[in-house]
Amino acid sequence: MTRMALIAQWIETARPAAVVVDVSVEVALVVRLLGVPLIVMAMPGERTDGPHALVHQIADHIIAAWPRELHEPEWLRAYAAKTSYVGGLSRFEHREVLHPVQDRAASVLVLGGAGGCDFDQATVEATAAQIPEITWKTLGLRGGPRTADPWPDICAADVVITHAGQSCVADVATARRPAVVLPQSRPYREQDVTAEMLRRHRLAVVADGRPDYRAWRCLIAQARGSDPNRWHQWQTTGAAARAAEAIETTVSKHARANVR
To answer: Quick check: pTM over 0.85?
Structure first.
């Protein structure tokens, strides 16, 4: 209740032209009930439940941060006229893509995230001990190092091992790095659906469960033999600008309607 009251108070004070809501059904409903134009971020997965269906119905516009060509879920087709598939959104879109140093031992970066992973620092260290011919580094895992800027480490890795969260996938796609993706358990099978997109279109090697060190050798070799240029299909270039354009168009449309 306190959070909703604060949001309502902010809307009263700021008078926003529109509000973009990421994953909160409750916040989206409050925004719409207060008469503010609403843009919602669609999430992959099986979003067929009542609350999500209601939010997609009342939204003035929907932004999906993946390419329509790779995945157009059945539950979004009813709202095709007000949905923009903008591609993967990465904060590193305008950074220079650095290339790994050649003529050195193969390197792997295990990249975690705020949502948590089944694998932690101790698990990676145990695996790395079994595969000493590869240089292992971790970022964002429980018990391991973190950094505010993982971009140089992503670019430097011969293979990135990560989960199937939207941000991590978009960052790896922007860097055009070979990847092994381990989808994590999330509500509505969000990461499973994303991983299936990547597997089907051969953008990354996808592994289920927790592979042992023998499987890791094969998975890493498979990823190193893949074509990282296939990541262009994730359409990260220009994605933020496309999202901004969708938001601005929605705002302009409502401004014109109010003038009438």
So the answer is: yes
